[in-house]
Write a structure and sequence with these properties.
single chain, about 60 residues, mainly alpha, transmembrane helix, transmembrane, membrane
Length: about 60
């Protein structure tokens, strides 16, 4: 962990650009699975619990 933090301190431009991109594209990565999958599942007969789990996994996969 220390080595990682030392590298990130040296590469300030890389770190700052990563945070800027995270802020600018947060809503895209959040809305894509959340609203897209929930809209798809609302038209099917999938139980609510399965819909919730699928949307949460979709958001998690996009963020990871």
């Amino acid at each position: 962990m220390q080595l990682y933090l030392q590298r990130m301190r040296r590469k300030v431009v890389l770190t700052s650009s990563t945070f800027v991109l995270l802020i600018l594209t947060f809503w895209f990565w959040y809305e894509l699975p959340l609203f897209g999958l929930s809209d798809y599942f609302s038209e099917t007969n999938v139980p609510g619990f399965i819909q919730f789990i699928s949307v949460c996994l979709g958001v998690g996969f996009c963020f990871s």
